């Protein structure tokens, strides 16, 4: 039996979108290989999420519910996850390549002495029934396929927004199971005193409905700051191209593209961005794209729903003026 597990993550009081995207992919792979999809989720007072996960495609949801799991901490989460994986011995385990997934997956993989492929952009099952994990490598210049032939489970983290959200089927049926959470005093050495939401946190970028992205054409750090004003006015997040990061206008965790984050917002505004393929691969799933560029032949206009040929230093203040007086 080729059970495919997704370790779901909580975000903003609900399920992280990447967990549902992975659940959709797991469903597709399981249907193809004749296995089941099992979602494991940890937290506190999260039992209602079980039904939601079933509606999105899980055959079984296993819940680790405990007050000490209310907020993510490496050691207690790693303890509980390692224990259930040792007990149930799944074939494949998938996590989002988020801050949490990138922290938790390698620790658990090391404890289970199995292989882990980080930051995948695609997954498939080959003729031998092995999980083929596709990811950029060698400075992101080539895509490689990785398989884990011997050790189990085959573990992978996958970047948010590479797979679409699956359909939610209201009357889907599945099983909900609870695990007993046994923690050791050593697991609880780290104490979470307070959680402060950063206003412009890079991790929000992948989940934002509106992304305002600046490229080299923004011209200076001072001009780049205008993007935060626009993003705030639209309730969105700021992103950047690699040259904007290289210019130190913004931290590299905000970079969009092949070597950065994948975004799929409802509205994407590209300001002073040329539209290189290494960039567009990270935003081409956006629903509506507005491009502002002074060069009418810039490739970004091929991705744009609406194109504005003009200088960002004039267009952005004009848009802000419209928004604030509307
Ligand atoms: C292996 C590899 C991985 C890469 N990964 C990434 C990645 O993850 N993300 C990424 O972004 N890049 C990545 N790159 C770099 C990528 O190839 C491009 O160089 C980069 O995306 C270009 O960024 P840009 O559009 O900001 O700059 P440019 O290509 O220089 O474009 C600037 C644009 O701004 C316009 N402009 C200039 N002034 C103004 C103005 N005043 N008003 C309006 N428009 C103006 C210009 O007409 C131009 O079109 C990668 C490259 C390689 C080789």
Describe the structure.
The chain has 326 residues and is an alpha/beta fold. It folds into 2 domains: 4-188, HUPs (Rossmann fold, 3-Layer(aba) Sandwich), CATH 3.40.50; 202-325, TPP-binding domain (Rossmann fold, 3-Layer(aba) Sandwich). 28% of the residues lie in helices and 25% in strands. It is built from 8 helices and 17 strands. It has a 7-stranded parallel beta sheet with strand order 7-11-6-1-4-5-12, sandwiched between helices. Helix 3 (74-88) crosses helix 4 (99-112) and helix 5 packs parallel to helix 8. The longest helix is centred in the N-terminal third of the chain and has 17 residues, at 17-33. The chain is globular. The termini are far apart. The chain binds flavin-adenine dinucleotide. Flavin-adenine dinucleotide binds at residues 139-141, 215-217, 219, 241-244, 255, 257-260, 272-274, 276, 278-279, 282, 292-295, 298, 311-313.
